[in-house]
Amino acid sequence: MLDHAEIIALCRAEHGDPYAVLGMHTDADGGLWVRSLQPGALSVTVLDAKTGKQVAELKHIEIEEVEGFFEGLMPRRRGSFPYRLRIVWKEGVQETDDPYRFPTVLGEMDVWLLAEGSHLRPFERLGAHLCEIDGVAGTVFAVWAPDAQRVSVVGDFNTWDGRRHPMRLRRECGVWEIFLPGVGAGAHYKYEIRARDGYLLPLKSDPYGFQAEMRPSTASMVCALPEPVEPAPAAAGDELGAPLSVYEVHLASWRRADDGGFPDWRRLSETLIPYVVDLGFTHLELLPISEHPFDGSWGYQPLGLYSPTARHGDPTGFRNFVHSCHDAGLRVIVDWVPAHFPTDEHGLGRFDGTALYEHADPREGMHQDWGTLIYNFGRREVSNYLIGNALFWIERYGVDGLRVDAVASMLYRDYSREEGQWLPNVHGGRENLEAVAFLRRMNEVLGQEHPSASTYAEESTAWPMVSRPPSMGGLGFHYKWNMGWMHDVLDYMTKDPVHRRYHHNQLSFGMMYAYTENFILPLSHDEVVHGKGSLISKMAGDYWQKFANLRALYGYMWAHPGKKLLFMGGEIGQWNEWNHDRSLDWGLLDFPLHAGIRNLIRDLNGIYRNNPALHQVDFEPAGFEWMAADDAECSVVAFVRWSRDRSRAILYVGNFTPVVRHGYRIGVPMPGRYLERINTDSEYYGGSNVGNGFDPVYAEQVPAHGREWSVNLTLPPLAALYLEWIA
């Protein structure tokens, strides 16, 4: 019989090794014992799993202050055999396989790789996995909690009672595991963890949970691991020379469901995808869709990194949505947040009673601006968790790229901190060397496993070579957001045109560093929140001029070297600042000036995609040539964009004053005809229809701007012109 101290520890859910005593065991005399903990049971009987016949009824061991422990010696049995348990409850009779009769689940190689922090796909072993063992269907649970005294799976299958299913610890890697027969898809569960000091922690959601409850509920749900998606083919030729125009979307507030709630994946497939395709964008970027507890974080404070948010439906719905995007010719980018995580008690914070995923010292592990925790990138299991997650979204859902949020906050230990609030690195510097190593490794793994996938860094500092390979000393991203360009140009557009002559360099300065990174020009969600106002409300001038300025801004952006990104609502000239709790103001499209903005975006994307001069050479000087960079007095800029073979060219001219300039002569690099393809002042876009008409403008051998040849143009007010060169 089992020692009373061990029985008491089991019944109090304080036993650190339940597999050593529960289930079937042989004693020193060769006797075969079965022990089971079933709090509240009236009786427990052992059945032969093959014949279904009763083998023995277990005795209820009654000890003061504890109950539910049953054990018994198997008569005439000298070797182990497969068995089931018949449990009599007050509510009825249950027959089930005993979880404690099954062998270990993790293989030796998995244990080795998890301990080493080098398991390429840890999500294939950790979390909840539907499976069949010895012909019995159920779910394997595995969770990393190396410093816990005891871990149990609790859920709607065991009345959320941590005594019923304590797990086995694989000490080599700090992972607790258990196979629960009969637990199937849709079961709700969490982990009950007793810390090393005996403190019972709040119930924890699964860090590797593949599905989660709809907030405010926080349980994980058993869900089949999605099958791998056939990887998208790598881009032929020069990927960096392909058109890349991104529509950034917060799914919950793009267009609400008819009942005012969240649209589901099917509805989004039917509405959002054709809308984005019609506007000519090449990519759809989704604000974080990982599960997150607080709507107001927009997903940027996630806790369920492996769970598509329940706000829009189940994981299969998201997978189908991505597939529908691909069918429509759209690539999908998801915002990914390895920079921090919130402190909600059901999440990763002090997961096993210690600072497991985060740093113990808040000078290393707390974002003061956001009140969130910072991952301990130097801990190999944490880095493995995050890198596996990056691979997971691309491999299991077919996502084409990850836009990594808040990279600057990862790179610097003193990010948004005063003196004395941060700890230097091992060399005494401010750089977060562990985060740098993590980002490089993440990009290397994605590049090796899925070379067609891309990564995008939101990085706002002068950190060098963000979009250069790690082999060159870079971070390995494909693209970096050009925050400097965005701030300069938006600031310029807020100024009254009469004063713009004094700030002309804000238009041209971006070319001084344009080739240091592979830049994306972002007009993102960050520019239309927190009192900053919408894009059109930032524009200078009266009502009409605000629209003209916004059209001129878009004209300049789509012509400028760099890939493009526009947040939803910018294409309709929304007046209200973005509100995550309501839909965009779609009724504005009933007004011609707002509809005109959308028409312009559609046409800009069209010429951008179809003319290689506007996208083929974004990151080298060969694709750009100034024609007029210094006409501050007239607030005019002009440049030529070239295709790689220089067979195609677009002359861009921007007039950032409300003055119509007749007879404005622009130097051009070669003779020929120049045909007006885009005029943001067209009446079709809501403009005054001043311009150069449909007839080509011929270059004349008249010097201008240091060029032998020039064209004589009419520049419309607050407008951009695109003129295609025809030899």
UniProtKB/TrEMBL annotation:
Which UniProt key words apply to this protein? Carbohydrate metabolism, Glycogen biosynthesis, Glycogen metabolism, Glycosyltransferase, Transferase
Domain of life of the source: Bacteria
**Documented EC number(s):** 2.4.1.18
Ranges for domain Glycosyl hydrolase family 13 catalytic? 248-602
Q: Which reaction does it catalyse?
A: Transfers a segment of a (1->4)-alpha-D-glucan chain to a primary hydroxy group in a similar glucan chain
SUPFAM superfamilies (UniProt xref): (Trans)glycosidases (SSF51445), E set domains (SSF81296), Glycosyl hydrolase domain (SSF51011)
Q: Which InterPro entries match?
A: A-amylase/branching_C, Branching_enzy, GH, GH13_cat_dom, GlgB, GlgB_N, GlgB_N_E_set_prok, Glyco_hydro_13_N
Q: Which CDD domains match?
A: AmyAc_Glg_BE (cd11322), E_set_GBE_prok_N (cd02855)
Return the Pfam families for the record.
Answer: Alpha-amylase, Alpha-amylase_C, CBM_48, GlgB_N
Function text: Catalyzes the formation of the alpha-1,6-glucosidic linkages in glycogen by scission of a 1,4-alpha-linked oligosaccharide from growing alpha-1,4-glucan chains and the subsequent attachment of the oligosaccharide to the alpha-1,6 position.
Family to which this protein belongs: Belongs to the glycosyl hydrolase 13 family. GlgB subfamily.
What is said about its interaction partners and assembly? Monomer.
Q: What is this protein called?
A: 1,4-alpha-glucan branching enzyme GlgB
Task: Name its species.
Answer: Candidatus Accumulibacter contiguus
Q: Which gene encodes it?
A: glgB
